[in-house]
Amino acid sequence: MLSQPIEYLKGVGPLRADLLKKELGIFTYQDLLYLFPYRHIDKTSITKIEDLTSMSDYAQVQGKLWYFETTGVGSSKRLTAYLKDSTGVIELTWFKGLTWVERMLKQDEVYNAFGKIGFFMDKPQIVHPELELVTNPSAAVKSYLEPVYPTTEKLKAKGLGGRQIGKLTASLFSLIPEREIEENLPAYLLEKLKLISRADALRNIHFPTSAAMYEHAVRRLKFEELFISQLRLAMVRMERHRKSRGVVFHKVGDLFNDFYTHHLPFQLTGAQKRVLKEIRTDTGSGHQMNRLLQGDVGSGKTIVALLSMLIAIDNGYQCCMMAPTEILSQQHFAGVSRLLDGLPVTAKLLTGSTPAKERRVIQQGLAEGTIQIVIGTHALIEETVQFKNLGLAIVDEQHRFGVEQRARLWKKAPVPPHILVMTATPIPRTLAMTAYGDLDYSVMDELPPGRQPITTVHRYETHRMKVLEFVKSEIEIGRQAYFVFPLIEESAKMDYENLMTGYENIKAFFPEPKYWISMVHGRQSWEQKEANMQRFKNKDTQLLVGTTVIEVGVDVPNASVMVIESAEKFGLSQLHQLRGRVGRGAEKSYCILMTATELGNEARERIKTMVSTGNGFEIAEKDLELRGPGDIEGTKQSGVLNFRLANIVHDKPILDAAKKWAEEIVEKDPEISLPENTPIKQYLLSLKGKTAWSKIS
Ligand code: ADP
Ligand code: MG
């Protein structure tokens, strides 16, 4: 019965059904039951007109219709009615459907009017109120919370406003017998978590019998929603662990051991060791590894990548490591080559600027297997690059790579290589659990010892001179500094001009030939950008003025000051990334957030967060809290975050419980075939094919 098409419901019909499908995605009776009201109107409470204030928000008044009139012509035509109770008069106004409303109005009758209270010249008014004729004003009003539903202009025009949808829902409830709403959670879960039944919850979320029952209904339905999504993610993970084929790295061999004991320049942190162990387990399992490694800026992901590559090589496989930019690839290549000095490993760099002749030699080496490690940009995924036996692909700073590009890597070997995706933009745990829940993930939440915390301060524009003096004093003692300006697409021209003016001002303060400045921005060709970056890296320039193109991965340990101009225009994760460009050497480092003196609330929160913490995970959580899950990069299309009721920020405890139970159940009953889990199985079958999954791999 619940799968009946919505047009069969009395009062719907084909026309409205079509709109319900298009506008709200309601196809069946069940879909209508899962369209939840966003508020309830308490029909029992009536406010005296004199008690209305500008803080009243939505309210209901009761009074006698004093008189009404139509004024204006054409589009400014309006109907105004005056309702009077013993304490005052309220103005009710309509701009649409005048004829219809006028026909309904009867002078001297008593009406209830409900709506958003506004004030015009100190007089209370409601625009487009909900009006109800009161036939027996002295009778006690039945205690009753009326649901109001989300709707759209198109639906309203066809008579399906927020309240009318409620009438449909009510008629649906009177139609379906209780037992038609089958339980979809196992009995033991309901009992353990003290959840009410699905039938009770659905009825009470629409038509609550009490405030307490409403709360129970919301909790139960939030859990149901998060649990079902966690269960499906756990099943995808389980499926991949059991069924995917992957190359097996049987052993940790001589190369790894030799490097580990004789060449490793420092002790690994606990987090690095733990992640390495996770990778080791994955790659030895016979199934393909799909792991997302999140580590805060500077947590030392590169060495973990290198050690993983050595394990692959010990087992006779090749590796590749992709980075989003030329300069990052070069940096990785230089670092890796230095570390591997004296070891029998051949590593090559392959980027867009590799000369054709050298490129051919590298391609041949990769095809024949004489090159074990290749590091580079997207040039690595071109068709012409073939491997003899690729076993491990590492992708650094994944958020710059598209899913499709990564997929091309997978195809470079008969058995898909293991994949390690590394990102320095921490993802809040709740997001990782939902949007990326089908991947395995590792977290490195520990910085190598001896790092000096970066001092972060907030300074207003008005203190520019002091800031410049400070930067000068740092340069005097041999350090380098960044100045970063915002560059936002929509206002690119203005931002570009700001950057140029900023550059001129900085240059006036730091004149040549004593000081040299590199400038990097998005309008330069990449050769220009790289050349300017390189000059800064080589200490030919002391200052680098630029836009966020420097954001990711750049490593200049001698740079000790990061000045972020108009910091209020940056998002939290961007600010954190930018700050991560300093504090990479032994020197004390500073991040100066420059802002205008006038700041909005959210901008103030962001700046405050940056000043108070250096922990990327805390910052990511705050970012999610401020912006909400819908706005986080890369999650918009994924569909897995479109929860009806649950909010992964506010309902974290419910999410945790849902995940715990989902994993336990899938572990114990991977096919969901035990009798006690039948309710889940039935429900999953009824959902089949309804949700799209986000997938990095
Ligand atoms: P990220 O995680 O941001 O990519 P990197 O891999 O670039 O970080 O490492 C940042 C710096 O920390 C590098 O200079 C690296 O050599 C150093 N480093 C990494 N691990 C350790 C460690 N365990 N002890 C000391 N220094 C380390
Ligand atoms: Mg890195």
CATH class of the domain at 455-613: Alpha Beta
The tally of beta strands, per DSSP, is: 21
> Globular, elongated, flat, extended or rod-shaped: what is the shape?
globular
Physical arrangement of strands within the biggest beta sheet: 11-12-10-13-14-9-15
> Cα distance, first to last residue?
39 Å
What's the tally of helices?
23
Helical coverage, percent range:
25-40%
Q: Please outline the major beta sheet.
A: 7 strands, parallel
> Which oligomeric state applies?
single chain
- Averaged pLDDT, please? 86
Small molecules in complex: adenosine-5'-diphosphate, magnesium ion
Q: CATH superfamily membership of the domain at 455-613, which one?
A: P-loop containing nucleotide triphosphate hydrolases
Q: Per CATH, which architecture of the domain at 455-613?
A: 3-Layer(aba) Sandwich
Class per helix and strand makeup: alpha/beta
Describe this structure in words.
The chain is α/β, with parallel strands linked by helices. Among the domains are: 45-141, Nucleic acid-binding proteins (OB fold (Dihydrolipoamide Acetyltransferase, E2P)), CATH 2.40.50; 254-283 and 299-423, 3-Layer(aba) Sandwich (Rossmann fold); 455-613, P-loop containing nucleotide triphosphate hydrolases (Rossmann fold), CATH 3.40.50. The protein is 39% helix and 18% strand. It contains 23 helices and 21 strands. The chain has a seven-stranded parallel beta sheet, with helices on both faces. A six-stranded parallel beta sheet has the order 16-21-20-17-19-18, sandwiched between helices. The chain has a five-stranded mixed barrel with strand order 2-3-4-6-5. A hairpin with a 6-residue loop joins strand 2 and strand 3 (78-84). The longest helix is centred in the first third of the chain and has 33 residues, at 211-243. The protein starts with 12 loop residues before the first helix and ends in a 10-residue tail after the last helix. Adenosine-5'-diphosphate (ADP) binds next to helix 11. Magnesium ion binds next to helix 11.
